[in-house]
TrEMBL record:
Pfam families named in the record: Glycos_transf_2 (PF00535), Mitoc_L55 (PF09776)
Cellular component GO terms, alphabetical: endoplasmic reticulum membrane; mitochondrial large ribosomal subunit
UniProt name for this protein: Dolichol-phosphate mannosyltransferase subunit 1
Location(s), subcellular: Endoplasmic reticulum
Family statement: Belongs to the glycosyltransferase 2 family.
Domain Glycosyltransferase 2-like: 103-272
Presence of the UniProt keyword Metal-binding in the record: yes
Length: 335
């Protein structure tokens, strides 16, 4: 790990690894569905679905918790007979459900400097909280050498903790999640940015809230009491607040932060929401949360601090703002 941080100035390393500091900003991606995932059905069979396929054409994932003990035993026998990769089969939850496993999905593109620190912090806080976890890095062939860094991290922490699943090119955030889900062994999926925009110290809080309230989704929020944003200029804050206010006014989703991307999902819930969503950029995250609200999923919130990224350039553009407004109107009118 020290080798990966060797080229960083010592003052930067010290401040980045300080438990009392946070460094944040979200990454913008395009959303283009091209991948398939396998969903396990109650009878033990599997079906492939395309993430953009309408739910009217597929069977949605079932609720495992609603099964009787006899149905659950029958399902487990079916699982052991098939070697197909499925969202549920690949998880490692204990029989009593007390010790679930958590999968962190990290899409990356040009995050060579940020990725080692992000992984170090995830390991630090998950180990301290004694949660079973893995991190899946989905790199879209970054030209800056991010994939080489990810390989070193995989060797450093072990392939049971850090799993590199690269893709040939930049295909978008939604397909990155779909790609990562195929390899996830966790019962719950944590989505976060790799650019240090989301501090891993909030992950245990999200997990504990989910366990206490049995939520389907726990989302980090910048806009509830205790949350906040730092490192943005006045214009950026105004745009963010305005966009969130407009979304709240039109959609009334019941959550305070629609465009945030730091969230914890039940695996089957995330699979269904991705399958249903068609938006790009900021609107992709907003659409998933809006649909979750309409489907009556139970959603909790954890206040987070959000500070502009430490390394790299911000990716917000005028086109992203235009796309956001178009996407918001689409959700308001058609969903």
């Amino acid at each position: 790990m020290l080798e990966l941080l060797k080229n960083m100035a010592s003052s930067q390393v010290t401040s980045l690894l300080s438990a009392g500091k946070t460094f944040y900003r979200s990454v913008i991606y395009d959303f283009s569905i091209v991948s398939f995932i396998q969903l396990l059905q109650p009878d033990g069979s599997t079906i492939p679905i395309r993430a953009a396929e309408p739910l009217s054409l597929i069977q949605v994932p079932f609720n495992l918790d609603a099964l009787t003990d006899e149905e659950r035993r029958h399902l487990e026998m079916k699982r052991h007979k098939t070697k197909k990769l499925t969202l549920r089969q690949n998880s490692r939850m204990s029989k009593d459900g007390i010790n679930p496993k958590y999968t962190v999905l990290l899409p990356t593109y040009n995050e060579k400097e940020n990725l080692p620190v992000c992984i170090w912090l995830i390991e630090k806080y998950m180990k301290k909280a004694e949660f079973s976890y893995e991190v899946i890095i989905i790199d879209d062939n970054s030209p800056d050498g991010t994939m080489d860094v990810a390989k070193k991290l995989e060797n450093e922490f072990g392939s049971d903790k850090i799993i590199l699943r690269p893709r040939a090119r930049k295909l978008g955030l939604g397909t990155a999640y779909t790609h990562g889900l195929q390899f996830a062994r966790g019962d719950y999926i944590i989505l976060m940015d790799a650019d240090l925009s989301h501090h891993p110290k909030f992950i245990p809080e999200m997990i504990k809230l989910q366990q206490h309230k049995n939520y389907d989704i726990v989302t980090g929020t910048r806009y509830a009491n205790g949350g906040g944003v730092s490192g943005w200029d006045l214009k950026r804050k105004f745009v963010s607040r305005g966009a969130n206010f407009l979304a709240q006014f039109l959609l009334r989703p019941g959550v305070s932060d629609l465009t945030g991307s730091f969230r914890l999902y039940r695996k089957d819930v995330l699979a269904r929401l991705i399958a249903d969503s068609v938006s790009k950029g900021y609107v992709f995250q907003m659409e998933m949360m809006f649909r979750a609200s309409k489907l009556n999923y139970r959603i909790g919130e954890v206040p987070i601090s959000f500070v502009d990224r430490f390394y790299g350039e911000s990716k917000l553009s005028g086109q992203e703002i235009v796309d956001y407004i178009k996407g918001l109107l689409y959700l308001f009118i058609f969903v």
